[in-house]
Amino acid sequence: MEKVVILGTGIAGCTAAIYSARANLNPLIISGPEDGGQLTLTTDVENFPGFPEGVQGPALVEMCKKQAERFGTRFKVDIATECKKVKNGFELILMGGEKIQTKTLIVSTGASARWLGIPSEEKYKGRGVTTCATCDGAFFKGKEVVVIGGGDSAMEESNFLTKFATKVTVIHRKDEFRASKIMQDRFFKNPKCKVIWDSEVIEILGDGKKVTGVKLKNTKNGKVSELKTDGVFLAIGHVPNTSIFKGMLNMNELGYLTTDRFMKTNIPGIFAAGDVQDTRYRQAITAAGTGCQAAMEAEKYLAEQE
Ligand code: NDP
Predict the structure, then answer these.
(1) The pLDDT value given to residue 134
(2) Spans of the chain, pLDDT less than 70
(3) What are the two backbone dihedrals, phi and then psi, of residue 305, each rounded to the nearest 5 degrees?
């Protein structure tokens, strides 16, 4: 039986691995479907302490993985599809069929991009509709795109997309952004960035092969209009990856795991860290911090069991 298994290789999981490995607990970390987590989908991280010039998200998470590996963390590329309680611990069933038993579990499965959930979005996914500007921005060189959302991600993605696109129009359902001031300032200063307020995208328009536009509905007066565009970037937040724990671990109404301030879930021996349990901060640094806490609590729990 393993001592510590960590689900998710984002910065929370990697930090938990660094701490567990340095405590000689020989942790096993399972990647999940989005190896490296959300940092792999971003560009400049300017607010992680220790990097005065900023650091690229993928580079940061890669360094964390290397650091965890240096102290003996074992990495497995697979996806946990089931978790159940067994004597003295928990059993995970992986997509590859393998069963792994562990005395403690740290859930740092993060959150994944939210989609609008309309049929036309499904039809044009990967054909002009995407959730990752970093991954797909370069396909829109010389084109016009829209970004949906009003948070920091929408601001960041818009600015990034102006490297390629001739015009970036943000479509937001309210008449003000919730993004931080510094991100908004950058957005409004960028001559290629425009905004359409009080509007929701109700349909993605296309020619059957690729996106050609969006149908908008004004949230105040209900008026419907169309806007031509070559690409649609979604930046409307995230949903936590907690489906395998439904009915087992306590969650809030949005599906985020609930923990006490020691990162303990309702089941002794299972801890949670990072965005999977964070509805408030959702920063790389707070994810790393909770990863550290979860690992230290798992170590304490193991010591108490012995
Ligand atoms: P947020 O949850 O902050 O914002 C999501 C945005 O999408 C909101 O404006 C919301 O509208 C809108 N939205 C949600 N659902 C829908 C929908 N169905 N249709 C239309 N619009 C919708 O998510 P972010 O990803 O922007 O940010 C998450 C966290 O990551 C935040 O804490 C943020 O600060 C952080 N972050 C930090 C960055 C940085 O510092 N460099 C960069 C990117 C993110 P409404 O406002 O009406 O609710």
Answers:
(1) 85
(2) none
(3) -75, -25
Q: Give residue 306's pLDDT.
A: 85
CA distance 265 to 285: 21
Same domain as 71, residue 205 = no
| Residue 237 alpha carbon to ligand 1 centre in Å | 5
Q: Report the interhelical angle of 181-189 vs 152-161 (nearest 10°).
A: 30
State the total domains in the chain.
Answer: 2
Cα distance between residue 191 and residue 204, in whole Å: 25
Ligand 1, atom 3, lies closest to the CA of: 151
State the residue range of the domain holding 290: 2-113+238-305
Instruction: Give the model's pLDDT for residue 42.
Output: 81
Q: Quick one: 247 and 270 in the same domain?
A: yes
Tell me, what's the pLDDT at 135? Answer: 84
Q: Are residues 8 and 101 in the same domain?
A: yes
Q: Both 153 and 58 in a single domain? A: no
For residues 6 and 90, give the distance between their C-alpha atoms in angstroms, rounded to a whole number: 12
Relative to beta strand 99-107, strand 2-7 is: parallel
| Residue keyed to tokens 């992680």 | 48
Q: Which residues line ligand 1 (CB under 6 A)?
A: 47, 116, 148-154, 156, 173-174, 178, 200, 235-237, 282
- φ, ψ of residue 210 to 5 degrees: the values are -145, 165
